[in-house]
Write a structure and sequence with these properties.
Elements (H helix, E strand, L loop, with lengths): L5 E5 L2 E5 L6 H9 L3 H23 L2 H18 L9 H22 L17 H18 L3 H12 L4 H8 L3 H26 L1
Antiparallel strand pairs: 1-2
Helix pairs in contact: 1-2, 2-3, 2-4, 3-4, 4-7, 5-8, 6-8, 7-8
Length: 201
């Protein structure tokens, strides 16, 4: 929610963002009526969080920006059928998450090429940096090993801070299913990291 004395420029017009600034529902109605400034405000309100979410799900900042841009275009195309009594944010982030899943599936079907040897460094970094990178690699590998739905829910809940009910609406599954997937994902992550830690001893 916009609070305080924030200002946003939309189509050359300065909007002072206060507690009285229209919420998502009012902006959606205005966009349906052809108000371009309302859509610009809607984009600015959700852009940063959407790009962050897509980048977390894809592991690729450039692709994340493209996905979010496509998602906002999809919003424009389908906004007439959106139930304005529903919350806009979960509906929009569901579009983003689905497009990330589709992109990942299409990438997984394509053969991947090894990194050129010229990109590999022969100089070891400081010990602390090496450990940090090793941990990051283990975490990424453990995340990549999760089923897509569990990985999505773990990222949305533990990293992005969405609540169970928000994720439930976003992914169109029950809250109980969200809790089950979250439990399974955390258990799988712990098991994978414990096995890797034992192998390194």
């Amino acid at each position: 929610m916009w609070t305080g004395n924030q200002r946003v420029v939309a189509d050359g017009v300065v909007w002072r963002m206060t507690a009285e600034t229209p919420g998502d529902r009012e902006l959606v109605v205005a966009v349906r009526d052809g108000d371009a400034r309302a859509f610009d405000l809607l984009v600015r309100r959700h852009l940063r969080a959407a790009v962050r979410l897509a980048a977390r799900l894809l592991g690729d900042d450039d692709a994340a920006e493209d996905v979010v841009q496509d998602s906002f275009l999809a919003v424009l195309e389908s906004l007439d059928g959106f139930d304005e009594n529903r919350s806009f944010a979960p509906w929009f982030y569901r579009i983003v998450a689905n497009r990330c899943s589709n992109l990942k599936r299409s990438r997984d079907r394509r053969p991947t090429e090894a990194l050129p040897s010229s990109l590999e460094s022969d100089e070891p970094g400081p010990e602390g940096e090496a450990e940090r990178r090793a941990l990051g690699s283990r975490l990424k590998a453990a995340l990549d090993g999760l089923p897509e739905r569990q990985r999505q829910i773990l990222m949305l809940y533990d990293v992005e801070g969405f609540t169970g009910p928000e994720i439930s609406e976003m992914l169109d599954i029950s809250s109980a299913t969200v809790r089950w997937h979250l439990h399974q994902a955390r258990a799988a992550m712990r098991a994978t990291l414990e096995v890797e830690a034992q192998e390194e001893r």
